[in-house]
């Protein structure tokens, strides 16, 4: 039997289509939530962080942490393991992770024109047409970003990605369901020995990608009957060393018979390959209203392989804390609006695991005592030696890693 994947634009009758196809076929439903839950169980990554892989908005720290790419690696593994069974209907983003080499998958896209979607959104959500347009555009941004990251296509409804693209504004529900079920029963999408081997290849490639991601590497992987191909898509200065490192990790994965490396098209572009170094702090938030100073400091930390983002006032810093969860903050005290002491107090109340290093040119002894009482990791005066600051960052990072490993 086959597997059905359904990817859709929002407000395109996805839910009744899925419900009726399940009723007609007896297939088992697999949702994005199911895949996220399984990937979270395998990886230990919280579900809310895993789900962010489907969002158009990346963390400001992603260039250093590769959090999105790591999450996708685990999601692939969860999908690959699900494909050990047949008669599945995979609804949502996760079905797009299944490679085209697996031929017993019927890939379906449900879409409709904007007028149809606006009407349905307004009725279902009880909102105005204007609000409906805004909502649909936001949801489409996520779909565009997802498909672009996987296939380098900016049209998430591109017909080349699917076996069936069904215009729900022009086709009634019963006809759409009938079209899907009839095609799912055709011989061309039934499981055979070749497609089953392709599932095994996908599972092996996913395991290798996961192992490499856990070591801080972000590369493309394919596999065929035990031969694993690693594709390096960013420029690296010591290519031979990187290839040796990648091969050594991949060879340890059960089922791998041989490993080869290749450079992809991206290797010749200007991006530089950056391995995520777990020993270095890669989610540092710098908060200071002296723009030139904080930008220079950020650049100096990046030169030391420390990932950083910048906020120029307390309110922006608190917003970044809630959205991107930095691990270490370097915080000035004297800022317009919400001052550093208040930022420290709120951060320690809402996110006590964030380590905060105070770096100020105006603080008093009373300020130092209050900051340490509120939970600051260190209190440093400007100007500060970059080596002293770096040492404090590494110590704060070590404290965080020890806490995480103890959980």
Instruction: Determine and state the CATH class of the largest domain.
Output: Alpha Beta
**Fraction of residues in β-strands:** 15-25%
Query: Which strand order spans the largest sheet, edge to edge or round the barrel?
Result: 2-3-1-4-5
Model regions low in confidence, pLDDT < 50 over at least 5 residues: none
In the CATH scheme, what's the topology name of the largest domain?
Rossmann fold
Helix-strand topology string: EHEHHHHEEHHEHHEEHEEHEHEHEHEH
Instruction: Tell me the CATH architecture of the largest domain.
Output: 3-Layer(aba) Sandwich
Arithmetic mean pLDDT: 93
Task: Sum up the structure in keywords.
five-stranded parallel β-sheet, Rossmann fold, 407 residues, single chain, alpha/beta, 48% helix, 3 domains, globular
Show the helix and strand layout:
Elements: E1 3-8, H1 14-25, E2 28-31, H2 32-43, H3 47-51, H4 62-65, H5 67-82, E3 88-91, E4 105-111, H6 114-125, H7 129-151, E5 164-167, H8 173-184, H9 193-214, E6 220-224, E7 227-232, H10 239-251, E8 258-263, E9 284-287, H11 291-303, E10 308-311, H12 314-324, E11 328-331, H13 340-350, E12 355-360, H14 365-374, E13 378-381, H15 386-406
Parallel strand pairs: 1-3, 1-4, 2-3, 4-5, 7-8, 9-10, 9-11, 11-12, 12-13
Antiparallel strand pairs: 6-7
Helix pairs in contact: 1-8, 2-5, 5-9, 6-7, 12-13, 13-14
Task: Tell me what you see in this structure.
It is a single chain. This protein is α/β, with parallel strands linked by helices and about 400 residues long. The chain has 3 domains: about 5-190, 3-Layer(aba) Sandwich (Rossmann fold), CATH 3.40.50.300; about 215-270, no CATH class; about 285-405, Rossmann fold (3-Layer(aba) Sandwich), CATH 3.40.50.2300. It is about 50% helix and about 15% strand. The protein has 15 helices and 13 strands. It has helices at about 15-25, 30-45, 45-50, 60-65, 65-80, 115-125, 130-150, 175-185, 195-215, 240-250, 290-305, 315-325, 340-350, 365-375, 385-405, and strands at about 5-10, 30, 90, 105-110, 165, 220-225, 225-230, 260-265, 285, 310, 330, 355-360, 380. The strands form 3 sheets. A 5-stranded parallel beta sheet has the order 2-3-1-4-5. The protein has a 5-stranded parallel beta sheet with strand order 10-9-11-12-13, sandwiched between helices. Strands 6-7-8 form a 3-stranded mixed beta sheet. Helix 1 (about 15-25) packs across helix 8, helix 5 packs antiparallel against helix 9 and helix 13 packs parallel to helix 14. The model has no long low-confidence stretch (mean pLDDT about 95).
């Amino acid at each position: 039997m086959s597997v059905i994947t359904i990817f859709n634009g929002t407000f395109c009758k996805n839910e009744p289509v899925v419900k009726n196809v399940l009723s007609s076929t007896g297939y088992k439903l697999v949702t994005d939530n199911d895949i996220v839950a399984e990937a979270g169980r395998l990886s230990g990554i919280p579900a809310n962080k895993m789900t962010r892989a489907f969002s158009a908005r990346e963390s400001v720290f992603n260039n250093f942490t590769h959090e999105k790419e790591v999450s996708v690696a685990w999601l692939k593994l969860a999908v690959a393991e699900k494909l050990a069974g047949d008669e599945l209907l995979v609804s949502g983003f996760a079905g797009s992770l299944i490679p085209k080499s697996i031929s017993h998958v019927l890939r379906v896209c449900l879409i409709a024109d904007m007028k149809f979607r606006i009407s349905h959104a307004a009725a279902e959500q009880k909102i105005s047409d204007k609000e409906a347009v805004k909502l649909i555009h936001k949801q489409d941004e996520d779909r565009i970003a997802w498909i672009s990251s996987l296939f380098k296509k900016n049209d998430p409804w591109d017909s080349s990605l699917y076996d069936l693209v069904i215009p729900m504004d022009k086709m009634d529900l019963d006809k759409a369901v009938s079209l899907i079920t009839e095609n799912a029963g055709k011989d061309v999408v039934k499981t055979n020995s070749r497609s089953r081997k392709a599932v095994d290849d996908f599972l092996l490639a996913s395991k290798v990608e996961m192992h490499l991601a856990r070591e801080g590497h972000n590369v493309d992987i394919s596999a065929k009957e035990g031969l694993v191909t690693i594709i390096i898509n960013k420029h690296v200065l010591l290519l031979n060393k990187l290839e040796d490192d990648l091969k050594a990790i991949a060879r340890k994965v059960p089922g791998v018979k041989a490993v080869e490396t290749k450079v992809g098209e991206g290797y010749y572009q200007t991006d530089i390959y950056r391995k995520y170094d777990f020993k270095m702090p890669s989610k540092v938030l710098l908060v200071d209203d002296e723009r030139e100073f904080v930008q220079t400091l950020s650049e100096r930390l990046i030169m030391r392989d420390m990932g950083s983002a910048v906020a120029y006032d307390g309110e922006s810093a608190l917003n970044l804390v809630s959205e991107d969860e930095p691990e270490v903050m370097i915080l000035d005290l004297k800022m317009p609006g919400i001052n550093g002491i208040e930022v420290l107090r709120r951060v320690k109340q809402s996110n006590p695991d964030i380590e905060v290093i105070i770096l100020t040119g105006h603080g008093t002894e009373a300020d130092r005592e209050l900051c340490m009482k509120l939970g600051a990791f260190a209190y440093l005066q400007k100007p500060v030696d970059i080596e002293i600051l770096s040492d404090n960052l590494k110590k704060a990072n070590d404290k965080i890693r020890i806490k995480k490993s103890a959980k």
